[in-house]
Design brief:
The chain is an alpha/beta fold and about 250 residues long. The protein is built from eight helices and 17 strands. α4 packs antiparallel against α6.
Amino acid sequence: MRIVIIEDEELTAADLVDTIYQIDPNIQIVSVLSSVKAGIKFFKKNTKAIDLIFSDIQLGDGLSFEIFDKITISSPVVFCTAFNEYALQAFKTNSIDYVLKPFLKKSISNALNKYKSLQISFLEKNLNYSAIIDFYRKVYQKPNTVLVYLKDKIFPVKFDDIALFYIETEITYLITLDNQQHTINKTLDEIEKRSPDNFYRANRQHLVSNKAIKDVSHYFPRKLSVSLKIPYQQKIIISKEKSSDFLNWLSKS
């Protein structure tokens, strides 16, 4: 059996690979894809060579359904999700099964067995993901947490508790409203796409929450300087091109 995994969390993907091999070491993991962009590129060349797909729903650059929207894929999908309503809808349309995160070895084994029992019928089925894509676009909501890394531990931090995200030496950090700093395993572009509307991309280095803004002052020439309620040494400068948009966002926050 040839399997593709679509998952943007590196540790989760590695755990899923290990679990599948524990269940059946003869299975071949053809590829682990971490984004919509990577998925589209891969399936343009490999639409007929895959038996089964394990796919997360929520990726850093969009929903995995965007892959199926752009590429005709006949392989059945096991959706991996933390949201029951998402999983149930996926199960009722085209997928053969779903597993809820954090997944168990038993749930993965059950999904593989279900594929084997339904293999012939799915090979004969013309899968159509348009309905499920429409559904997810209507009900999809951005996550309310981001995962942070502290030594050997990983834990969620709510966006409501975050003052800003910033980049330093190509590493992404967050600072909470109570002045706790953590590293995260995402680019600032990925975090921006996941963040709620009360976050603003001030510049290439900073993504700031309206809850953290103390005041804004003019900064020569026709730029803006943002002061925060928490201690932060770097200047957060809004370019003159973005100044009006930023002030409009701040007035609605």
